[in-house]
Amino acid sequence: MLGCATVTKGTKDTLVVESTPENAQVQLSTGQACLSTPCAIEAPRNALSITVTVSKKGCETRVGNVVSSLSTSGGTAFAGNALLGGLIGAGVDSYTGAAREFKPNPLKVTLEC
To answer: Chain centroid to CA 42: how far?
Structure first.
């Protein structure tokens, strides 16, 4: 069985990373990466915190954090599980992180070159 948020929002969210200057490389602690900013990376919603490393040759590397918190629409779907007696669905939504979203999103990083 699936939870409401799992069905409506999915288990992954798109994290957007922007940098000044552009064309920097991005590495997430969850293993995903992109070669050139700005970029959009799909990451698992159940990652409560993601470390984002942004680097560019000739610039100082920056490390930032993105957290996963309960989203408004995900919270509504999660509450719908509880109200309709879908405790299994609520458990699935909690486990998969489907009721969550990344913040800040987009992550904006300024590199010193």
So the answer is: 7
Please tell me the total count of domains within the chain: 1
Q: The domain that contains 15 carries what CATH number? A: 2.60.40
pTM (predicted TM-score)? 0.72
> What whole-number distance in Å separates Cα of residue 111 and Cα of residue 105?
18
Per the listing, tokens 């922007």 go with: 18
- Averaged pLDDT score across all residues of the chain: 79
Q: How far is 100 from 32, CA to CA, in rounded Å?
A: 19
